[in-house]
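Tokens for Peroxidase. Go.
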Amino acid sequence: MPSSSSSNFLLSFLFALTASNCAAKNVSSSSSSPRQLSVDYYAKTCPQLELLVGSVTSQQFKEAPVSGPATIRLFFHDCFVEGCDASILISTTPGSKVLAEKDAEDNQDLRAEGFQTVSKAKALVESRCPGVVSCADILAIAARDYVHLAGGPYYPVKKGRRDGKISMASRVPYNIPRANFTIDQQLKLFNSKGLALQDLVVLSGAHTFGFAHCKQFVSRLYTFRGTKQPDPDMDPRLLKSLRMSCPQFGGNSDIVAPFDVTTPFLFDHAYYGNLEAKLGLLASDQALFSDPRTKPLVLQLGKDKQKFFQAFSAAMEKMGSIGVETGTRQGEKRRESNVQT
């Protein structure tokens, strides 16, 4: 993958040309009839696609490792609202009363590095394969790249998604899991997306790297579920450490803590061992070990990294197919990543 100064200059130049946007113009599809997702969808129209995206993700990962979990979370939030159609990238029209997904309250802490990754990759791909590749496919490929760059599995990404035209903040709250969700609540949401209990446990493993803001777990530290006591399913040492950074009231809203306290920058299976040791950061994470329906799989994945990698690859393919728009009658292929609603 290119990493020379000339390559970096090219990426920066192309990024500037598109002004950080994945979109604005509709592009007619090269397909004459609806098609299913396939690994070789762009084999003839943009054969160098994965190398192009890979050159961006590898450089971005070196410069800002947080781009990895940021992009994977972006992919998750995109797929769970309106399906995997890059609608999370659309911006609200200035002055409009209808906010786009990215401006929903639940998406306010999505890191800029995720959006930047897609914008940079889209700019480079457009320079070589104009009007061919959707932003939705680029996001799916970038998420896979970061999993691998952080030490996780490299799995084939099926392509052929089209970019959605609808992006509404009002559709976000009931489609995104909350940090304090019980297993019942998580299962109900995942089931509504065509995902099963195993997918819930396996996809939660993406919390093997990345960070969360205090507001996502502060209630566990002081008054868990209204008890006025901390969550008993949190290791006392972790509780003490988190309380030092996250006071019950006030505090710095920018403070974050790692999901995985043992290997926070690696994509591995330590997340599951942490749950067994009561070191899960979010209540929704730790609940996976507490609930008898999910505990057996947590124990299995904590002991077998390859089993987790294989299961995660399959679950990402399954999630990446949620509500996809394909063919000529649905969606569009944006030239840039950020079209206004």
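The CA atoms of residues 26 and 334 lie 6 Å apart.
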